[in-house]
Specification:
heterotetramer, A mainly alpha, B mainly alpha, C mainly alpha, D mainly alpha, A: mainly alpha, D: mainly alpha, two-stranded antiparallel sheet, 18 helices, 2 strands
Chain lengths: 507, 98, 637, 469
């Protein structure tokens, strides 16, 4: 069974979700079933993580021909690049089913389908397959925001959907271009990333394709200035959806850059790296500053999440092993810190019926456990040493300094910017005097405590002893960077940007 | 020699087009379309003479047959329209728009 | 190898475990049933004491070794290793860290004991001690860390604890704000530290990123990079040790409970910066310019803070500024490459400043949290123990021979003079005078003269033993600590300096005895002048003067807080709201909005063409085909 | 034998039409069963067509039809699509006419004649044959459009369609006349030979081809000959609209592709022309669609956009090794989606098509979740979201475009499909994210819903297992 564990992890949730849709079960049953499925996935994920031998190669590979005429295969695999993303996606889901009880069955079904699709996107090593899962994973989000979201959900959901689909359709054209040029260069059709990395693309269309790829991922991550869908979507979406969006889906964008863009478009990537890195940093500062001005905790966290994503993306663009490993590690760290903060805010909202920072205060006295957990997650998200947040940020900043001193310096400011808004929020929500609203705040129940405790422990464990994670991803990162830097420098200069635009089609 | 016939047929064709776009009475519009078809027939005949082959004549016959069928349908429509509005002005029938 | 020992890691571990246990107990007690304070107190004091014992063991083990190879290491585990960056969670005990270790654990333990009395009947007793233990643990990690990254863990850990403890009375917004300020300013410093580490790593870190390897490779460091690294690290030191321009947080930090001020904001944490500079002495030694920058920053801070100290009325604020000023001295010392002198001042300062704070704490405790020295007076007879101990502390601070402060400060000034930094020396001497002045201003106003607040005075009484005993112990320290590093001129042989020598790149200027005498003489004179002026003004119960002119200016700390507020904080927030209110919707999001809007409008406009007249449709066709045929005829020829 | 086998479906359809006409004359069958009967005949034809599709090589009817008809894989695929459309149309008609003014038996026989014309069209390799089959098809469709004599809108649709259709037909005849003049023959084969010996750029040929293209472009509603399609779709009965939107388009595009592929020189000559037509068609269609409030009109407009994509397929066909597989697949994918949604509309529309505007479908998901889900699936398929058939179709089209070096066109296609997300999502949002105001009571009939759900299955089946000829 374990040789195609990945397929199981992909299709078990999807099928479960579909069955849930079609069968007339009540929401309690749905929730239980969802929890069970998620737990199975969790177990499989952990098992897979332990079994992963940490070489630079693909493991748990599956390969079946699907569409011969175009060489599209159903091929899955996991390596150091995707391992931690998969781990995150597999591990964090059960929490949602435990914490939030007030949802209909459709919601749980959607959640499961999202999980399956995301795992698919993470494991796919065939570009077309990846694209298919990539698109599928958006649809449940669309429905979840639209059906269960906040008051201003309709514009938000329309915006996120069209914005992201716009990006991914451009990517579709680009990836077809890649496939076609593979066909013209090697005389056979293939969309498998391993083979595609043998391509050497150059010329205007390559740049165009690269841009289209990056656009899709930049929107998903989101990179500045393509983040404008994020505040609305994150704020209007139901908390668990926001959690999924920020904790996992955004990471898949980063992952996809590493997996699909870098190997294929070395030259273009090298040429645009500085620009991209800059946009990452600017986004970090921009969103971090915007977070200060927020009255709504969730929106504040949305901006903080965007800000951190900027840093994570930066790590990828720096393309040295420290930064890359840092990013891959930070993917988990950010999911466990900021992502979990979203869940906490969800709890807060359920208990207080408000997310407005001004209406809160003094919760720490009423709910020490909640405050402690929240505090730890917050400290992790501001990258305090001893929590998971530090390792990643440290590595990324280290790499950024190597990449470009100026960028490195700007990236460093994240440790200041982050702490500013977080402390500001923590002070107003947890300290100061309680008001009649927060007087009757209930601390975490035993179940909730036990649910969140593992995550909190994970945060601390990953801060104190990250090596087990790092040693699994580091070889892959090493090789990735090695392949990248083995790219002949001469290519970088002789690629021309299309000046005449698109008007010269016939080539 | 052949040019003259062609020119004539083109002129007929253009008259037909003009009729279609300029007139609003359904009957006249249909007539203009018939005119265009006949222009085509004329061209067929001329070309078949030019190529010294009978195909053109046959084709012309076919076209006429089809034209007749169309005309039949057209007349039915005319009656239908008259039933509805008592007018044959095409501009009357503009419920579907926007 | 014989240098590897297995217990260094335990030293920080005990307090950390204590913190964990106490924290859990506290949280437990919040929901169900209170837990007796005695239990908390017991657990709280275990950690520090055990660590102290271990510190002694470490000390003696090192003593047993040959001086040049005096160090113990303990690599607990590989923390993380990426590419050629290998970070081990390792601990290093060499003379420098062992000295720090000793007094940190010692004073830490004392203050824990003191706090049992001071914090009695506080409903968050457990929380307090949990934080204190956490602090001690982080501080020990900071001291013992075998490399910069491990040090950084402790570095930020103590920052966190100081935040938590400053905002300990968190119901009051100002305290929390003070905490935030401390944390954020520290973070600014940490940025420097972080970048400094990054530069250091890319320069020479590949061969191993711990002090021993770095020290070996330090000769590979190019001067340029070296300067950058030094300055960046010094930024970190400024943040932690409250030097210009980052000193603003320390006075506000007095919002925390007094033992906290004593332990964190006087004795231990704030000296971490000095420790760090000394740690990296092998780099600073290469770039004298950096040293000069450090020295001047330090001495100017000393001057500025001393001036502020002259006009404060809050007893803790006075002590806070004196702390800043003393830290300035220390930096001056390490800046002029007299590292051992700087560290020695750290050592002595820990004693007398902790002593002064605890004394002040006792006073405040006695007067029910009255901190304004203009409301005190005549407490001499009421609380003699406190008085005498504090007097000793004051003398030590003011640098009166033969108290601890005298020797350490004099060592610094002497080395400044000897290394030719005359300017620094002059300022230093002046500051010494000012120090004497404001210290005794405080002493006179608090203990001599007539009580200014009658009924508070009546209720005042001597603090309980659990508080006074630490005072006495510290007083002893303040008295005799100086003799540990007795310069040769007094027949001593600079024990501490020699002890520290292996772990520092110290060089002792050999100048004539006259210079040394000059230095001593001047500082004694400065002290004398300062104390006389103080006596003249406040000796026998002075009345509160109007703060006018320069005094007002000084009392308001030259309005530096206001300056920062208007120059940095307000704009920062403004930028935030500008981005959110106007930039985000009107600029960043504009293309998206615009395109969708255009699309909708265009669609609406396009409906016009669907007029519904069949004739018009025919005309469309004709127009279309005529245009096409035109284009075709173009293509024909 | 083979040639007869591949003609067999054609004959079945034709005789089916005649049979139904006779039956209606003698009134032997209850009107109720007419659709069932027609479904049966269509089904039989479909099976035969499947069998015929097994024939690998193409059959040229040299002696039977003097080379006027050719059947090959492409025509087989197209015929399959057309017959399938007929099948599902008659399926949804069953339900539709229960809740609208009932029709007579002739309706179905006309359906068959139309299908017959289409099949003939796919096979025809000669201009006049094309013209005749075109007219057979069109005349039948005209009548179907205007079948509901009592509804003035239906009549108006008929008028518009007939008028403009005849107009376009006239162009076709003129075009074929010119080509006959230029090439001396009306057989595609001979024309091809003529072009390869002489050139495709003689005035007569260009003029003729141009006129013929106009006729084709009109039938597939390409910009600027699209104006009629929206009104006609709205006026016609929903199942008929579905039939027109799918089968007719399939037939025309087949013959269009065959005509283009008759000689590479010809195709090269016209690539640029088609490039711009495709471009304008895509964006024009989107612009029209976004403004529509009526679902049928929106679908008509989106049909224009899909015409644009198919035109890209035509631009990209490589005449050397022309299989038409891409176009055929896209036609199938598009047909499945469109038929499905029209089937759904034809039973959700209610009495007298009272529910046809977006707002009428508010909160459909709350009342009829399965129907709403089905519609959503069809819409997503049209939008080209995986894993539906529409996605694979778009994938093939773009692939062929880029392989033919038409990168720009590919990008434009992508952009236009981004634009089309807008109105597809709009309907989904209205169905799902609004509260229901309507109980959506409908005449209980199993056929149309069954048809819908079968088609849902097909959407995924074709999408996940794209069998490319």
């Amino acid at each position: 069974m374990f040789e195609n564990v990945l397929s199981v992890m992909i299709f078990l949730p999807i099928l479960a979700g579909l069955v849930m849709f079609l069968s007339p079960v009540n929401k309690g049953v749905a929730r239980l079933a969802g929890f069970i499925v998620a737990t199975i996935i969790l177990i499989l994920g952990v098992e897979l993580f332990i079994g992963f031998s940490g070489t630079a190669a693909m493991e748990y590979v599956e390969n079946r021909t699907w569409i011969e005429s175009l060489g599209i295969n159903y091929s899955l695999g996991i390596d150091g690049i995707s391992l931690l993303v998969l781990f995150t996606c597999a591990v964090l889901f059960p929490i949602i089913f435990v914490v939030f009880s007030t949802r209909t069955k459709g919601f749980y079904a959607n959640l499961l389908i999202t999980q399956g699709a995301m795992i698919g996107a993470i494991c796919a090593t065939d570009m077309v397959l990846f694209y298919i899962f990539w698109e599928i994973m958006l649809l449940p989000i669309f429905f979840m925001i639209g059906l269960y979201g906040g008051p201003k959900r309709l514009p938000a959901t329309l915006k996120i959907t069209i914005y992201t689909i716009a990006g991914s359709l451009l990517m579709l054209a680009a990836l077809i271009y890649v496939g076609v040029s593979y066909h013209t260069q090697f005389g056979e059709w293939s969309f498998n990333i391993v083979q595609l990395s043998r391509l050497d693309l150059s010329g205007g269309y390559a740049v165009l394709a690269f841009v289209m790829f990056m656009l899709a991922f930049a929107i998903k991550i989101p990179l500045f200035p393509f983040h404008t869908w994020l505040p609305d979507a994150y704020t209007e979406a139901p908390t668990s959806t926001t959690f999924v969006l920020s904790a996992i889906m955004a990471k898949i964008g980063v992952y996809a850059v590493v997996r699909f863009v870098v190997p294929v478009f070395e030259i273009e990537f090298a040429r645009f790296a500085l620009l991209l890195a800059l946009s990452g940093v600017v986004g970090m500062m921009y969103c971090g500053l915007a977070a200060i001005a927020q009255k709504d905790i969730k929106r504040l966290l949305a901006f903080s999440s965007a800000s951190h994503m900027g840093i994570i993306a930066l790590g990828v663009f720096c393309m040295n092993v420290q930064a890359l490993t840092g990013s891959l590690f930070q993917i988990v760290a950010h999911a466990t810190s900021t992502g979990v903060l979203f869940l906490f805010v969800g709890l807060l909202e359920e208990r207080m019926e408000t997310r407005n920072i001004g209406d809160l205060g003094g919760i720490a006295y009423r709910a020490p456990i909640f405050a402690t957990f929240f505090g730890i997650a917050m400290l992790a998200s501001v990258g305090l040493p001893g929590t998971s947040g530090f390792i990643g940020e440290f590595l990324i900043i280290l790499g950024a300094v190597k990449f470009n001193v100026f960028i490195g310096f700007l990236a460093g400011t994240t440790i200041i910017i982050g702490v500013c808004y977080m402390l500001w929020m923590f002070q107003r929500v947890f300290f100061e005097k309680t008001n009649e609203r927060t007087e009757k705040f209930k601390d975490l129940s035993l179940v909730e405590t036990l649910t969140f405790l593992p995550v909190i422990l994970l945060i601390i464990f990953m801060g104190i002893y990250p090596q087990p994670f790092i040693e699994k991803i580091e070889p892959a990162a090493q090789q990735h960077v090695a392949n990248f830097s083995s790219m002949p420098e001469t290519h970088v200069v002789d690629t021309i940007v299309p000046t005449a635009g698109l008007k010269h089609q016939k080539n | 020699m052949i040019q003259d016939y062609l020119i004539l047929s083109v002129i007929l064709f253009c008259i037909g087009i003009l009729g279609v776009v300029s007139r609003r009475n359904v009957l006249i519009v249909f007539m203009s379309i018939e005119l265009m078809l006949n222009a085509a027939n004329l061209a067929f005949i001329a070309f078949s003479r030019f190529h010294v082959s009978m195909d053109g004549h046959v084709l012309a016959m076919m076209v006429m047959a089809v034209a007749a069928a169309e005309a039949a349908l057209a007349l039915a429509v005319v009656i239908l329209l008259h039933r509805h509005k008592g007018k044959l002005d095409t501009n009357v029938f503009s419920l579907l728009k926007g | 190898m014989e240098h590897t020992v297995s217990y260094l890691g335990l030293i920080p571990l005990f307090p950390l475990m204590g913190a964990l246990v106490l924290g859990v107990m506290h949280i437990y007690s919040c929901s169900r049933g209170k837990i007796p304070e005695k239990l908390y107190a017991g657990i709280a004091c275990v950690g520090p004491v055990i660590s102290f014992i271990y510190a002694l063991i470490v000390f003696f083990q090192l003593k047993g070794m040959p001086p040049e190879s005096r160090f113990l290491v303990h690599d607990a585990f590989t923390w993380f290793s990426v590419g050629d960056l290998h970070i081990t969670m390792g601990f290093l005990a060499d003379p420098l860290s062992s000295l720090m270790l000793l007094f940190v654990t010692f004073i830490g333990s004392l203050i824990h004991i003191y706090s049992i009395g001071y914090m009695a009947k506080d409903e968050n007793f457990g929380k307090f001690f949990s934080y204190m233990n956490l602090f001690l643990g982080s501080m020990l990690i900071l001291v013992l860390g075998s490399g910069p990254v491990v040090m950084f863990v402790g570095w930020e850990g103590v920052g966190l604890c100081s935040y938590l403890l400053i905002s300990y009375y968190s119901e009051d917004t100002d305290n929390v704000l003070a905490g935030n300020k401390a944390f954020i300013v520290n973070r600014i410093g940490d940025l420097g530290f972080l970048l400094g580490m990054a530069f250091l790593f890319w320069a020479i870190g590949a061969g191993g990123f711990d002090y021993l390897s770095l020290r070996e490779n330090s000769h590979l460091l190019t001067p340029g990079i070296g300067l950058v690294v030094c300055l960046l690290l010094f930024v970190g030191a400024c943040g932690k040790s409250a030097q210009i321009p980052l000193f603003v947080w320390l006075p506000d930090a007095m919002a925390g409970p007094t033992p906290v001020s004593a332990l964190i904001h006087a004795a231990t944490m704030v000296t971490a910066g000095v420790y760090m500079v000394a740690r990296f002495s092998f780099i600073y030694a290469h770039v004298p310019i950096a040293g000069t920058v450090v020295a001047w920053t330090g001495i100017l801070t000393a001057l500025l803070a001393a001036i502020f100290g002259m006009f404060q009325r809050d007893i803790k604020k006075i002590l806070a500024y004196s702390t800043v000023s003393q830290l300035g001295y220390m930096f001056a010392g390490v800046g002029v490459a007299a590292y051992s002198a700087g560290i020695f001042h750290v050592f002595t300062h820990a004693f007398f400043k902790a002593l002064l704070f605890l004394g002040a704490g006792a006073v405040i405790y006695a007067l029910h949290h009255e901190q304004d020295i203009w409301k005190m007076g005549g407490l001499k007879d009421k609380m003699p123990k406190t008085y005498w101990t504090m007097l000793i502390g004051a003398l030590a601070l003011a640098g009166c021979p033969p108290f601890a402060g005298f020797f350490s400060k004099d060592e610094i000034l002497f080395s400044a003079l000897a290394t030719g930094h005359t300017g620094i020396w002059v300022i230093g001497v002046t500051v010494a005078g000012i120090t004497a002045y404001y210290t005794f201003r405080m002493i006179f106003l608090v203990f001599h003269g007539t009580p200014r607040d009658k009924e508070a005075f009546d209720h005042a009484e001597e603090a309980p033993g659990v508080m006074t005993i630490p005072l006495i112990v510290l007083a002893v320290g303040a008295l005799f600590a100086g003799f540990l590093n007795l310069p040769s001129i007094f027949g001593g042989n600079l024990n501490v300096s020699h002890w520290l020598a292996p772990s520092l790149v110290d060089h002792h200027p050999h100048v004539g005895i006259s210079v040394e005498l000059l230095a001593i003489a001047t500082s004694v004179i400065a002290f004398a002048i300062g104390i006389t002026i103080a006596y003249r003004k406040f000796g026998m119960g002075a009345e509160e003067p109007e703060y006018t002119g320069f005094a007002k200016f000084g009392y308001n700390k030259f309005y530096i807080d206001e300056l920062y507020n208007t120059v940095l904080i307000k704009p920062y927030k403004a930028i935030g709201s500008v981005i959110w209110k106007s930039l985000e919707p009107n600029v960043t999001d504009l293309p998206v909005k615009l395109s969708s809007w255009l699309y909708q409008k265009a669609g609406a406009a396009f409906k016009v063409f669907q007029v519904g007249y069949v004739r018009i449709y025919a005309i469309y066709m004709v127009i279309g085909l005529s245009i096409m045929s035109l284009l075709l005829s173009q293509s024909l020829n | 034998m083979n040639d007869f086998l591949s003609l067999f479906p054609l004959l079945i359809i034709c005789s089916g039409g005649i049979l139904l006409m006779l039956l209606s004359a003698f009134e032997r069958v209850k009107l109720e069963n007419a659709p069932v009967l027609s479904m049966g005949i269509f089904g039989a034809a479909f099976v035969m067509q499947l069998i015929a599709s097994g024939i690998p090589e193409s059959t040229l009817y040299a002696d039977t039809f003097n080379g006027m008809l050719v059947s090959n894989g492409f025509t087989h695929a197209a015929s399959l699509v057309i017959i399938g459309c007929g099948f599902f149309t008659s399926m949804s008609c069953h339900t539709y006419f229960r809740q609208n003014n009932p029709c007579t038996m002739e309706f179905y026989s006309l359906l068959f004649f139309a299908a017959f014309g289409m099949l003939l069209l796919t096979l025809s390799r000669e201009l006049i044959t094309t013209f005749i089959s075109l007219e057979i098809m069109s005349l039948a469709i005209y009548i179907l459009v205007g079948y509901d004599r009592k509804r003035v809108t239906s009549t108006e649709a008929l008028l518009k369609y007939l008028l403009l259709g005849a107009f376009a037909g006239a162009f076709f005849t003129m075009g074929s006349a010119l080509i006959y003049g230029g090439a001396g023959s009306t057989k595609f084969y001979d024309i091809g030979i003529f072009i390869s010996t002489h050139s495709a750029a003689t005035p007569l040929l260009i003029g003729g081809t141009f006129f013929i293209f106009i006729a084709f472009l009109f039938k597939v509603a390409a910009f600027p000959f699209h104006a009629w399609v929206i009104d006609v779709y709205e006026g016609a009965a929903t199942p008929v609209t579905g039939f027109m939107a799918t089968a007719l388009k399939a037939a025309i595009f087949t013959v269009f592709a065959n005509f283009l592929a008759l000689n590479s020189a010809l195709q090269k000559e016209w690539v640029d022309f088609l490039f711009y037509i495709a471009l304008f068609t895509m964006f024009g269609g989107n612009l029209i669609a976004i403004g529509q409030a009526n679902i049928k009109r929106m679908l008509a407009a989106s049909g224009i956009v899909h015409t644009g994509y198919l035109l890209i397929g035509l631009v990209a066909i490589s005449t050397e090794s022309f299989t038409g597989s891409v176009i055929a697949y896209y036609l199938a994918a598009y047909a499945v989606g469109t038929l499905g949604i029209f089937a759904a509309l034809s039973y959700l529309g209610g009495k007298g098509e009272k529910r046809m505007s977006f707002d009428d479908f508010k909160g459909l998901a709350k009342v009829r979740p399965y129907s709403a889900a089905a519609i959503a699936v069809f819409l997503l398929s049209m939008a080209g979201i995986p894993p539906t058939a529409g996605f694979m179709g778009k994938f093939y089209i773009i692939t062929s475009a880029i392989s033919a070096g038409q990168m720009a066109l590919a990008v434009f296609a992508v952009v236009s499909s981004i634009l089309s997300m807008w109105y597809y999502l709009r309907l989904i949002i209205i169905m799902y994210f609004h509260e229901a105001e309507d109980a959506f009571e409908i005449e209980s009939s199993v056929f149309a819903p069954a048809c819908t759900f079968i088609l849902v299955f097909f959407v995924f089946a074709i999408g996940l297992y794209p069998i490319v000829v």
